[in-house]
Structure formats: C-alpha cells, structure tokens
Design brief:
This protein has 287 residues and is mostly helical. It has 16 helices and no strands. Helix 14 packs parallel to helix 16.
Length: 287
C-alpha cells in the first residue's frame, strides 16, 4: 500500500501547507473515481485547504470496497494533520477492522497515543507495524523514537539497528544511533555509528560536530579538535565552530592556535553562544 499523505509529511517533517501544489491544473469539484478523489484530496492538503481535502477523501471512502482502506487512511491522516485527533483515531480503527493486515493505521494510532503520553500502547502498535512490514526501515525508526521517548534507550538502539539493517545506506539512521549512544556515554560504539554516517554523507558538517562530542567523551581530544576543524572547513560561515575550537585548543595547551580561533569566534551571535553553551555542557567543559 502506498504511504498516506500524513506519512509523507511526517517523514519530511514539514507542515502540510508548505509542500506546494501537486498540479497546476484547474481543480475539479469532485473526482470521477476513488483514485481521482484521493488525488484531489492530496492537492487540497498541499494547498492548506483542509476542509475540501477531507470532503474528497470522504467521497473516495464511500466509493471503495469495504476492505480497500486506502482512502480511509488518507482521511485519517487529514484529520490528524488538522488536529482532529478523535476523528483520526476513529478512522484508523475502522481501517483496521476492515483490513487487519494493513500497516499504516498501526503507525497512525501510535502517533496519536504518543501525543497523550500512552507510550506503552504506542510501542505495541509500532511493534505490530514492524511485524507486518519488517523490511520497512521507517517503521523500525518510529519504534526506536517511541522507545527512546519512553525512557528505554537500549531497546531504542536495537530498534534503530534494525532500521539500519533494512536500509544500510541511510546516513541518518547511523547518525541517530551514534547520537543516542553518545547520550548514554557509550562513546566508542557511538563513534562506530557516526563514522558510518560520515562515510555515507561526508559533506555534512553537523555529523563531524557530533563526532567531536563522542571523541571528547572517549578521551580522544586530538580527534575531537580535528573533527571540529573538519566541520568548520565544510561550513566556514558557522562562527560557533571557532568558539568551540578555541576552547578545545586552550584545554590542550595550544594557546597560540586557540587565540586565533577565539578572534574568529568574536563574530558569534546569541544563537551561537547558546549552542556553544549546550555543547560545552554536553562535553563536561566549564564555560
């Protein structure tokens, strides 16, 4: 089954109204087929016309076979992105009653459960989703997020590792594991994951910054400095990197180099100072 519009919006983490129109054609008032009604509904969602989108999805639902829940899932997603959570939950549950083998309703219901702090129930739904589609890395990652938010980082890492197995070329999944391991002070393991992330996305300066935190935690100051330098080389416009370098170099007794970086760091703005403060706290360095 194709992903619902809600799933696509969730994956890219953008508000529905920012995605732009699917087509520039003049929009029809009603679809001639369920598929056409679904397409019209998606177009309305991208334009922020939620009420009309919901009407199109309802029309599609009414014309599909009872066990074809494609349009009902789209309708549930439309309710969810418009904060009509009870209606969304009702449509997801109807979809499951009509066809218990579809996966998307389990994921949609889990998102709603998480909103209300029902992490156990959310995790149960996501575990069912991964059973139904074990090859889908996104569902394993959603489970990892829920487990992390529920305070179970070890299980979260295991779930994220299954996402990596399903999609080993995803830099993000490797990064996510490395970052969570860093918060757990499992620095050597974190560096393995962060190395994989960097090898897959060598131009991402943020990954080198996160590696620097793990290097510092592992007592590898030289590599931490080198990692921040690489981040700075990739994006010289980020003055915060110079501030962090200056502090790390001064810690290492490289005062002349530290002084050069500190001069460049003088251009940091309030946001840079806030980010630097949080990084220093994470690294256990007194500002």
């Amino acid at each position: 089954m194709e992903p619902s519009f809600k799933t696509i919006a969730d994956l890219f983490q953008v508000p529905i109204g920012e995605a732009g129109s699917v087509t520039d054609n003049v929009r029809k008032a009603h679809g001639d087929t369920p598929d056409e009604s679904d397409e019209l509904g998606r177009q309305c969602l991208t334009d922020g016309d939620y009420e009309t989108a919901i009407r199109h999805f309802r029309e599609a639902v009414a014309r599909r076979a009872p066990d074809d829940v494609t349009s009902r899932i789209h309708l549930a997603g439309a309710y969810e992105v418009t904060d009509q959570y009870p209606q969304a939950l009702r449509e997801y549950e109807k979809a499951l009653r009509a066809n218990g083998e579809v996966t998307e309703p389990h994921v949609g219901i889990s998102d709603l459960y998480k909103r209300y702090g029902r992490f156990r129930d959310a995790i149960e739904k996501l575990e069912k989703a991964t059973e139904l589609e074990p090859e889908n890395p996104f569902y394993h990652f959603k489970l990892a997020e829920a487990l992390r938010d529920a305070g179970e980082p070890t299980r979260a890492i295991l779930a994220a590792q299954r996402a990596v197995i399903a999609k080993p070329d995803s830099s993000f999944y490797h990064y996510w594991i490395g970052d969570l391991m860093t918060t757990q002070k499992r620095y050597d393991e974190a560096l393995e994951s962060l190395r994989a992330a960097i090898e897959l996305s060598p131009g991402d300066d943020f990954l080198y910054l996160r590696a620097a935190v793990a290097f510092r935690g592992a007592g590898r100051q030289v590599e931490a400095i080198k990692s921040v330098r690489l981040a700075s080389d990739l994006d010289p416009s980020k003055n915060m990197y110079h501030g962090l370098l200056g502090i790390l170099l001064e810690e290492s007794g490289l005062l002349e180099e530290a002084h050069l970086e500190s001069d460049r760091a003088s251009k940091m703005d309030r946001y840079d100072h806030d980010l630097l403060s949080r990084l220093l706290d994470e690294m256990g360095i007194e500002p």
